[in-house]
Amino acid sequence: MMMRSIALGAAMLFSAAASPAWADSVSMFCGASEYELCAKAAAGFKEKTGNEVKITKMPALLDDAIPIYQQLLAAQSTDADVLFIDVIWIGMLQRNMLDLKPLVPAEEVSQHFQSTIDAATTQDGRLVALPWYMDTGLMYYRKDLLEKYGKQPPKTWDELTETAKFIQDKERAAGSPDLWGFTWQGKSYEGLTCDAIEWIASGGGGTIIEPDGKVTINNPEAAKALTRAKGWVKTISPEGVLGYDEETSRAVFEAGNAVFHRNWPYVWGTSQADGSKVAGKVGMMALPVGADGQKSSGCLGPMYLGISKYTAKPELATELLRYLVGPEVQKMRAIEGAYNPTQKSLYSDKEVLAKLPFLADAQAAFDGSVARPSGYTGSSYNRVSQAFYRAVHEILADGADVDKTLADLAGRLERLKESR
């Protein structure tokens, strides 16, 4: 089939020596940063069922997967069985996904956080995906450097700015010229939407478009948050941060060249792995707030698995999906990759908590997370997010006037809303 030629990165077939005569194969998509964990889960499925799993690695930049999915689904390709889905894609892809309610027992569905199930349920009541892991933005920091200089983990963004600059300057003077105070995701892409909405929401500036459809981005709190972030570039953050995504910024931190680093929960695992120069030196906390008394607002980003309605193997695809989102695989991924489970029972699992002690308080952190406005905007979300992150990038990189840029952005979003 011609869709097989679409460039998606390395694809691999995991197989044992000899399969039963009745064995079949099923395909799944997997995020680039978790490929090895997908391989281990696929091997477990093969061992349990005798069925092979073809794993296709997605692009490192998830935005690049959207047109690939759109091509596959528009062509009604049977090459795609189990899809790896960002929460913000659900509205866009829902018409091409199987309803899982008739396929997955209700008691299995109820084992996940209700918020994740609600986000994957369409307005007509279809459940089009099941959650694979919880994600929210977090702050990592060099606890050894904070201790060295008698600094506490900062509670506000202003405190972070001050602490980052202080330690950066002290360490450079002591012979570490490559050290920066803070790395984050400043590239003009979806990751910048996540970072910027955290800065704005944690300062009382809202979430771009509220659940009732009101465009709120043009406000003084949003302007203050973006002005602060603009001031980080070339002071506590390298100019190159304007091209950083998750992996690029993580590499700088794990090379020992940043004091603070904003990223997702998986970095807890990678920062402790062999090859990381900061293993054993990393602390983690909720993101700072705009001012005392305000609420930490890490961007909520559950990732899901769903089944293409064009699959030729719905039963086998369902069996794989149930296995992958079940407690056995989620526990393995939590322990080995620091992926926050969506299975509620695992938040009291002793082995999980021994590896990820921060999970004991994670449920409260998830309650404080801020969602991107994909619920209201649905299939128009990509256009809304693109308009937002491009405007933010202009402010950060080009010195665009903050107030004028936000006013222009609000007008653009109002026109998008009318066009819906």
TrEMBL record:
Q: Name one Pfam family in it.
A: SBP_bac_1
Localization of this protein: Periplasm
Q: Which UniProt keywords apply?
A: Periplasm, Signal, Transport
**Which SUPFAM superfamilies has this protein been placed in?**
Periplasmic binding protein-like II (SSF53850)
- What InterPro entries does this protein map onto? Bact_solute-bd_prot1, SBP
Do you know which Gene3D superfamilies this protein is assigned to?
A: Periplasmic binding protein-like II (3.40.190.10)
Q: What is its main location?
A: periplasm
Q: Which residues form the signal peptide?
A: 1-23
Q: Which family does it belong to?
A: Belongs to the bacterial solute-binding protein 1 family.
Q: Tell me the protein's name.
A: ABC transporter substrate-binding protein
- What is the source species? Mesorhizobium retamae
